[in-house]
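Progress narrative, Year 2. Work on 3'(2'),5'-bisphosphate nucleotidase CysQ from Campylobacter concisus advanced from sequence curation to structure prediction during this period.
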Amino acid sequence: MSELLNLAKKATINAGAQIMKFYSANNTALKVCLKDDSSPLTSADLAANEAIIKILSKSGIKICSEESILQESDKDEFWLVDPLDGTKEFLARNGEFCVCIALIKKARPVLGVIFIPVSKELFYADENGAFKEILDNNDEIIKRVDLNKKDKNLDNLIFSSRRGDAKEIEFIGQSLNFEQRYIGSAIKFCRLVEFGGVYLRFAPSYLWDNAAGDALVNFCGGKVFDANSSKEMSYELADLKSPFFIALSKNTLNLKDKITQLYKQSKI
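Result:
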Protein backbone atom coordinates (compact mmCIF):
# COMPACT_ATOMS: atom_id res chain seq x y z
CA MET A 1 0.00 0.00 0.00
CA SER A 2 2.82 2.43 0.80
CA GLU A 3 4.03 2.33 -2.82
CA LEU A 4 0.57 3.28 -4.09
CA LEU A 5 0.23 5.99 -1.44
CA ASN A 6 3.58 7.45 -2.46
CA LEU A 7 2.47 7.45 -6.10
CA ALA A 8 -0.72 9.31 -5.15
CA LYS A 9 1.20 11.85 -3.06
CA LYS A 10 3.63 12.49 -5.92
CA ALA A 11 0.76 12.85 -8.37
CA THR A 12 -1.09 15.44 -6.25
CA ILE A 13 2.07 17.50 -5.73
CA ASN A 14 2.91 17.46 -9.45
CA ALA A 15 -0.67 18.39 -10.31
CA GLY A 16 -0.50 21.24 -7.82
CA ALA A 17 2.63 22.57 -9.51
CA GLN A 18 0.84 22.54 -12.87
CA ILE A 19 -2.14 24.39 -11.39
CA MET A 20 0.02 27.10 -9.86
CA LYS A 21 1.51 27.89 -13.27
CA PHE A 22 -1.93 29.18 -14.25
CA TYR A 23 -2.76 30.88 -10.94
CA SER A 24 -1.15 34.21 -11.74
CA ALA A 25 -3.77 36.88 -12.44
CA ASN A 26 -2.03 37.94 -15.67
CA ASN A 27 -1.50 34.45 -17.08
CA THR A 28 -2.86 34.69 -20.62
CA ALA A 29 -2.49 30.91 -21.12
CA LEU A 30 -5.47 30.22 -18.84
CA LYS A 31 -8.50 29.21 -20.91
CA VAL A 32 -11.98 28.65 -19.47
CA CYS A 33 -14.99 26.89 -20.95
CA LEU A 34 -18.20 25.41 -19.55
CA LYS A 35 -18.94 21.70 -19.27
CA ASP A 36 -22.37 20.16 -19.87
CA ASP A 37 -23.37 20.76 -16.24
CA SER A 38 -22.37 24.45 -16.57
CA SER A 39 -19.36 24.03 -14.28
CA PRO A 40 -16.13 25.66 -15.45
CA LEU A 41 -13.27 23.73 -17.02
CA THR A 42 -9.89 25.43 -17.28
CA SER A 43 -6.52 24.71 -18.81
CA ALA A 44 -5.30 24.23 -15.22
CA ASP A 45 -7.77 21.35 -14.73
CA LEU A 46 -6.53 19.66 -17.89
CA ALA A 47 -2.83 20.16 -17.11
CA ALA A 48 -3.32 18.76 -13.60
CA ASN A 49 -5.27 15.81 -14.96
CA GLU A 50 -2.48 15.00 -17.45
CA ALA A 51 0.16 15.16 -14.70
CA ILE A 52 -1.85 12.81 -12.48
CA ILE A 53 -2.59 10.24 -15.17
CA LYS A 54 1.07 10.16 -16.20
CA ILE A 55 2.09 9.16 -12.66
CA LEU A 56 -0.85 6.97 -11.57
CA SER A 57 -0.69 4.97 -14.82
CA LYS A 58 2.52 3.41 -13.49
CA SER A 59 0.39 1.47 -10.98
CA GLY A 60 -1.45 -0.44 -13.71
CA ILE A 61 -4.75 0.40 -11.95
CA LYS A 62 -7.61 1.96 -13.93
CA ILE A 63 -8.19 5.68 -13.40
CA CYS A 64 -11.51 7.49 -13.15
CA SER A 65 -11.01 11.24 -13.23
CA GLU A 66 -13.46 14.10 -13.44
CA GLU A 67 -11.79 15.01 -16.72
CA SER A 68 -11.51 11.45 -18.07
CA ILE A 69 -14.33 9.29 -16.71
CA LEU A 70 -13.83 5.53 -16.48
CA GLN A 71 -16.68 3.80 -18.30
CA GLU A 72 -16.35 0.38 -16.67
CA SER A 73 -18.86 0.48 -13.83
CA ASP A 74 -17.99 -2.92 -12.37
CA LYS A 75 -14.35 -2.25 -11.43
CA ASP A 76 -13.46 -3.58 -7.98
CA GLU A 77 -10.36 -1.38 -7.83
CA PHE A 78 -9.68 2.00 -9.42
CA TRP A 79 -8.25 5.44 -8.78
CA LEU A 80 -10.83 8.18 -8.28
CA VAL A 81 -9.41 11.61 -9.06
CA ASP A 82 -10.41 15.27 -9.00
CA PRO A 83 -7.44 17.07 -10.57
CA LEU A 84 -8.68 20.50 -9.48
CA ASP A 85 -11.42 20.53 -6.88
CA GLY A 86 -12.82 24.01 -6.42
CA THR A 87 -12.37 25.42 -9.92
CA LYS A 88 -14.66 28.34 -9.05
CA GLU A 89 -12.45 29.13 -6.04
CA PHE A 90 -9.40 28.87 -8.31
CA LEU A 91 -10.96 31.39 -10.69
CA ALA A 92 -11.86 33.63 -7.73
CA ARG A 93 -8.20 33.34 -6.65
CA ASN A 94 -9.06 32.83 -2.99
CA GLY A 95 -6.70 29.86 -2.54
CA GLU A 96 -9.45 27.41 -1.55
CA PHE A 97 -8.86 24.71 -4.15
CA CYS A 98 -7.07 21.38 -3.98
CA VAL A 99 -6.11 18.15 -5.74
CA CYS A 100 -7.88 14.95 -4.63
CA ILE A 101 -6.87 11.33 -5.25
CA ALA A 102 -8.40 8.21 -3.70
CA LEU A 103 -7.91 4.51 -4.34
CA ILE A 104 -11.22 2.66 -4.33
CA LYS A 105 -11.56 -1.04 -3.52
CA LYS A 106 -14.98 -2.68 -3.39
CA ALA A 107 -16.71 0.71 -3.42
CA ARG A 108 -14.75 2.15 -0.46
CA PRO A 109 -11.66 4.41 -0.36
CA VAL A 110 -8.64 2.57 1.05
CA LEU A 111 -6.33 5.56 0.73
CA GLY A 112 -6.82 9.25 0.12
CA VAL A 113 -4.59 12.24 -0.61
CA ILE A 114 -5.52 15.92 -0.73
CA PHE A 115 -2.98 18.60 -1.65
CA ILE A 116 -3.62 22.34 -1.22
CA PRO A 117 -1.25 24.03 -3.70
CA VAL A 118 -1.37 27.59 -2.34
CA SER A 119 -0.47 26.66 1.25
CA LYS A 120 1.48 23.53 0.20
CA GLU A 121 -0.36 21.40 2.75
CA LEU A 122 -0.46 17.67 1.98
CA PHE A 123 -3.03 15.50 3.76
CA TYR A 124 -3.01 11.72 3.29
CA ALA A 125 -4.40 8.62 4.94
CA ASP A 126 -4.56 4.84 4.66
CA GLU A 127 -4.72 1.87 7.02
CA ASN A 128 -1.50 3.07 8.66
CA GLY A 129 -3.04 6.34 9.82
CA ALA A 130 -3.65 9.92 8.72
CA PHE A 131 -1.04 12.65 8.40
CA LYS A 132 -0.46 16.25 7.36
CA GLU A 133 2.75 17.55 5.84
CA ILE A 134 3.73 21.12 5.07
CA LEU A 135 6.12 21.42 2.13
CA ASP A 136 8.62 24.10 1.19
CA ASN A 137 9.09 25.57 -2.27
CA ASN A 138 11.24 22.57 -3.23
CA ASP A 139 8.53 20.16 -2.03
CA GLU A 140 10.66 19.08 0.91
CA ILE A 141 8.84 18.37 4.17
CA ILE A 142 9.03 21.21 6.69
CA LYS A 143 6.62 19.72 9.21
CA ARG A 144 4.75 16.43 9.62
CA VAL A 145 1.77 15.94 11.93
CA ASP A 146 0.13 12.67 12.97
CA LEU A 147 -3.54 13.66 12.78
CA ASN A 148 -4.58 10.85 15.11
CA LYS A 149 -2.35 12.25 17.85
CA LYS A 150 -3.27 15.91 17.36
CA ASP A 151 -5.51 17.49 19.98
CA LYS A 152 -8.80 18.48 18.38
CA ASN A 153 -10.41 20.91 20.79
CA LEU A 154 -12.66 22.77 18.35
CA ASP A 155 -15.38 20.13 18.02
CA ASN A 156 -18.13 22.76 17.97
CA LEU A 157 -17.35 23.68 14.35
CA ILE A 158 -19.65 23.01 11.41
CA PHE A 159 -18.00 23.21 8.00
CA SER A 160 -19.96 23.95 4.85
CA SER A 161 -19.48 25.15 1.29
CA ARG A 162 -19.22 28.76 0.21
CA ARG A 163 -21.52 27.94 -2.69
CA GLY A 164 -24.86 26.25 -3.08
CA ASP A 165 -25.50 24.74 0.34
CA ALA A 166 -29.01 24.77 1.71
CA LYS A 167 -30.53 26.55 4.72
CA GLU A 168 -30.77 23.18 6.52
CA ILE A 169 -27.13 23.56 7.57
CA GLU A 170 -27.79 26.88 9.30
CA PHE A 171 -30.72 25.30 11.14
CA ILE A 172 -28.56 22.39 12.33
CA GLY A 173 -25.68 24.66 13.30
CA GLN A 174 -27.95 26.92 15.36
CA SER A 175 -29.64 23.93 17.00
CA LEU A 176 -26.27 22.52 18.07
CA ASN A 177 -24.85 25.96 18.94
CA PHE A 178 -21.96 25.25 16.56
CA GLU A 179 -19.83 27.89 14.85
CA GLN A 180 -20.21 27.78 11.07
CA ARG A 181 -17.10 27.90 8.85
CA TYR A 182 -17.46 28.40 5.10
CA ILE A 183 -14.64 26.87 3.04
CA GLY A 184 -14.32 26.02 -0.64
CA SER A 185 -13.60 22.56 -2.09
CA ALA A 186 -12.57 19.36 -0.29
CA ILE A 187 -10.38 21.44 2.02
CA LYS A 188 -13.35 21.14 4.39
CA PHE A 189 -12.40 17.48 4.95
CA CYS A 190 -8.84 18.57 5.76
CA ARG A 191 -9.99 21.05 8.38
CA LEU A 192 -12.39 18.50 9.83
CA VAL A 193 -9.62 15.97 10.48
CA GLU A 194 -7.31 18.73 11.67
CA PHE A 195 -9.64 20.50 14.10
CA GLY A 196 -12.64 18.23 14.63
CA GLY A 197 -16.32 19.09 14.21
CA VAL A 198 -18.88 18.32 11.53
CA TYR A 199 -18.99 18.79 7.75
CA LEU A 200 -22.43 18.78 6.15
CA ARG A 201 -23.07 18.67 2.43
CA PHE A 202 -26.68 19.04 1.29
CA ALA A 203 -25.93 20.26 -2.23
CA PRO A 204 -24.94 18.41 -5.42
CA SER A 205 -21.43 16.97 -5.69
CA TYR A 206 -19.69 14.04 -7.35
CA LEU A 207 -17.92 10.96 -6.02
CA TRP A 208 -14.47 12.30 -6.97
CA ASP A 209 -15.15 15.40 -4.84
CA ASN A 210 -15.48 13.34 -1.66
CA ALA A 211 -13.62 10.01 -1.84
CA ALA A 212 -10.19 11.26 -0.71
CA GLY A 213 -11.77 13.26 2.10
CA ASP A 214 -13.80 10.24 3.17
CA ALA A 215 -10.55 8.28 3.52
CA LEU A 216 -9.03 11.05 5.67
CA VAL A 217 -12.03 11.11 7.98
CA ASN A 218 -12.31 7.33 8.21
CA PHE A 219 -8.64 6.76 9.05
CA CYS A 220 -8.89 9.49 11.71
CA GLY A 221 -11.64 7.56 13.48
CA GLY A 222 -14.57 9.50 12.03
CA LYS A 223 -17.23 8.54 9.50
CA VAL A 224 -18.98 9.94 6.43
CA PHE A 225 -22.64 8.93 6.15
CA ASP A 226 -25.28 9.24 3.47
CA ALA A 227 -27.61 11.84 5.00
CA ASN A 228 -30.75 9.99 3.90
CA SER A 229 -29.86 6.32 4.41
CA SER A 230 -27.40 6.81 7.32
CA LYS A 231 -25.14 4.23 5.65
CA GLU A 232 -21.45 4.69 4.88
CA MET A 233 -20.80 6.31 1.52
CA SER A 234 -20.41 3.99 -1.45
CA TYR A 235 -18.14 4.78 -4.40
CA GLU A 236 -19.47 2.59 -7.17
CA LEU A 237 -19.28 4.11 -10.63
CA ALA A 238 -22.85 3.23 -11.56
CA ASP A 239 -23.87 6.74 -10.46
CA LEU A 240 -21.16 9.38 -10.34
CA LYS A 241 -23.31 11.78 -8.35
CA SER A 242 -22.72 11.79 -4.62
CA PRO A 243 -25.59 11.64 -2.11
CA PHE A 244 -25.96 14.41 0.44
CA PHE A 245 -23.79 13.48 3.41
CA ILE A 246 -22.84 14.04 7.03
CA ALA A 247 -19.12 13.85 7.88
CA LEU A 248 -18.27 13.51 11.56
CA SER A 249 -14.91 13.62 13.32
CA LYS A 250 -14.11 10.97 15.91
CA ASN A 251 -15.23 13.25 18.74
CA THR A 252 -18.60 14.09 17.15
CA LEU A 253 -19.66 10.57 16.14
CA ASN A 254 -22.06 10.58 19.08
CA LEU A 255 -24.03 13.34 17.31
CA LYS A 256 -24.94 11.19 14.31
CA ASP A 257 -28.52 10.43 15.37
CA LYS A 258 -29.16 13.98 16.54
CA ILE A 259 -27.87 15.57 13.34
CA THR A 260 -29.82 13.07 11.20
CA GLN A 261 -32.97 13.93 13.14
CA LEU A 262 -32.33 17.68 12.76
CA TYR A 263 -31.75 17.20 9.03
CA LYS A 264 -35.12 15.48 8.67
CA GLN A 265 -36.79 18.23 10.71
CA SER A 266 -35.21 20.93 8.55
CA LYS A 267 -36.84 19.52 5.41
CA ILE A 268 -40.39 19.60 6.81
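The chain has seven helices and 16 strands. The helical segments are 2-21, 43-56, 87-92, 168-176, 187-195, 207-218, 256-266.
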